[in-house]
Fold each of these.
Amino acid sequence: DFQSIINEATALLGQTGTIGDMEGIIVDQLQILKKIFPALIAISVVITGTLNYYVTIWYINKVGFNKESYIHVKYWFLPRWVISIGIVIALLLKGNLLFVNLNMVLLFFTLIQGYAVSIFFIDKKFKSFVLKLIYTAIILFVPVLPPFLILLGLVDFWFDFRKIKYNKKED
């Protein structure tokens, strides 16, 4: 219930005495979260499922079953036509709540595409797991970088910087 969250946040800020203009900002932000909640659920499902899959494959291989995983993240190539047309349609119909959520999910997929491109080039140059882990943490905690990855993902859909779409590589 978003109204109870709003009430709790305003009560918490009211106790500190710094509520002022913050109440309006909190209410606005929680209303936006309420509108994009379906997209956030879909994105968290993708993240949770992917992490679950790769951690499970890692564990299965560690205990000796030798199960091959699907394709590594650095070779991911998402369907460009579906995502590109979906983004254009969602931007044209951004007044509808369904298309706002669709746009969020599709932009998340382009973020994933851009992340795959950047990981590909980091792995090509350095081959360090620690460096890729640090890079991932930086992407998660520096809010300026994901828009650049979204742009990189959109451009990679059409220009295939990694040259892997028709040239499947094995790791």
Amino acid sequence: MSLLHVHQMLRRASRGVALLVAIVVGAPAAAQIPAAEYAARRATILDDAGDGIVLVLGAGEPPENYSSFWQTPHADWLTGIREPGMALVMVRRGAMRAQWLLVEPKNPDAEVWTGRRLGERDAARRTGLATRPASDLDRLVDSLLAAGSGPLRVVRHRSEGGELVWRDQRRLDAIVQRHPGLTLDDADALITRRRGRKSAAELALLRRSIDITVEAHREIASRIAPGVYEYEVQALLEYTFRRRGADRPSFASIVGSGPNSTILHYNTNERQMLAGETVVVDIGSSFQGYAADVTRTYPVSGTFRPDARAVYDIVRRAQAAAEAAATPGANAALMSRSADSVLAAGLTALGLIDAPGAMYDCGSADAPRRCRQLRLFYMHGLGHGIGLDVHDPDQYYDTGVLAEGSAFTIEPGLYVRADVLASLPDTPGNRAFVERRRAAVARYADIGVRIEDDYVVTAAGVEWVSRLPREANEIEALMAARRGR
């Protein structure tokens, strides 16, 4: 294909996009995020990317037809299209820009198995994009590269292990082979940075997701009691998600009682709860793709026993200290430092560590290191961004500063594992530390506490959105009131 031919193709696509955007914007919006906002996001990415091609591959059809399909967050953020097999191709060359959405065509024989598809015509109406069948993807990319529209920037995705990997590696390898000298550039950072600032429409969806999650917490507060199984609590909260219109849980629901309350990502949820224990309930709904994340720790018997309450109060004070440091324009690291200070002082008062800044031997004989004793009982970060992912990009990751449009969690915790001291390297210093702290660990063993809330930064300040009781006496009152009802 000649350069002139590609130039004409780009011009026709640009005119089509403008016309379709006008049609879509002038019509009543079918979704809460309007087509114009998606178009503005794509335009921003092309501004950031410079000349070249940006290729975004959506998620494929699930390997089993009984598995649920979920779109990749980047593809969702740029198009709002939640169908398998879609791709987005965006091109910029000087002042010329064009975009194509590639989707699976209508096919009644396939749709009877996997559900209805938009097809090209309805996808164009919904998005304002020029559309082509998904089978044209290789041909389109090849023609653009042959006409000198490179480089090719491809959006990667996170694997189950958390690594960024290329989607459809075989296809990308074949493209590189057909175009000697071509290298693939990563476009993930371009979109990740922009996703960190949430729009008003995104915040509205997040608020709804958070509200549903809060309601689920209120529902399960009446169900927690000695003899109840963790999965019974899980069943009720996930029923509440769907009953209130959520898509699904935004992550595997955590209902961890007794020793399971000290496992950060425990989600087997099969143990029977016993009197006197705490149970950590870490849950989030996904509403139109937007993920909430709210955690409460409940006393299984309805009231905290004194040792559990002592741990709980420390965690709550740490959260309050982090909240006080969370102001627009503030350095986000202040939140973590504030919480760490309270947690370390509290652990010292309980006798679980020697002093707020005390260390232990955490390395090996070949590579000796020193680590804070605090980290034996608090080993995760203070919080994270929320959005289309439950651990979503946030602008403070890049700037270090809380700013309008941020949406994030604050979730301090303390976890006293019964075997925590047995895991330490065998050194003289650690042996002495174990002897000093053995009795305290035995006293507080199997108590895990985490308190997590969701916040957004607006022009008015930092707003606590997940408004749910969280002081120890409030938790007890909530459980009593719900049981009475």
Amino acid sequence: MGVCGNSNYLMALVLILLAALTVGQVHAGDPSKAPWIGKRLDGKKCHNPRPPPGGGPYNYLNRPAIDGVLNLVENAHFPESVENLQHGATGSVMADLDFLLLSFPNHHRGLNSSVRYSMKKKGWKNEKHGVPAE
């Protein structure tokens, strides 16, 4: 793997680590909810540009409180084919990742897939779906 490949891999790991470290902060009073925290690579604050589906965003780390919703969303929008960026389950891969991360913004495997998708496609097409991968 060349220098460029190593830097992409390192960027993906850093982004996932940052997400994992910051998810401990949850909405006061409801540990099942996950806030949008941190900054994007362009320096702007992370935020959800549209309402999350199904009443989220949910905190992926609080599995007991969200297990039913998580299983429903993962079964419909995050099968192995989406995680491995082969093809979408309900539309495009990007649409399924977008739905998953709107519902669970700190979903570790979903974040990893979105970073890999972003590096593979050289960007996250904001005009079609949600927020950038980072």
Amino acid sequence: MVGSYTHEAFAQEAIQLPLFDGALVLTTQAGLRQDVREPDGALLDFWRPVTFGPSDRPIGGRMDCKLAGVREDYTDALFDIRQRYRDTREERERSGLDDDSDDYTQSDAIRRLEIVGHAGEPHRHYVLTFLAYRAEPYLYDIRLNCEFRHLGEPRRGTDYAAIMRQYVDIAVPLSETPAATNPATPDS
């Protein structure tokens, strides 16, 4: 769909939103606030309620996500998402974002970098995902930033990346998916 609109859309089952030649999959209840599609780009803003902590003492909260994606001509520099992240790290730190951990996977066609961190003012946790996949002559560059806001402090060790993956998935139109890629070797 080309164009832009803003609305609240709720569903009890998974929602598949076309994303280039693949799909963004939102499972269970989700609120879609913005959906802007163009032939070579997409911008989506959505949220969902989440519960943190053990079932006997749950903490209510929400996950707010923004996805931006573009299709552009492939270059090796654009496909190097680790370097592109390194180029922005100092600026991220100056703006109060503390990146705590990262998970990088790669294959010949897909590279995924997932950053988990926290910030103050207001206090929040986040998962920032860089996903690049090539289908030459194009590179599909997708950024997904999910922030977690909560009414109380979840227990230490809360796995925000696992919570995000429970509700959001990006299906790519290739023979392999990011979950099927091999871990990269450490930097030399």
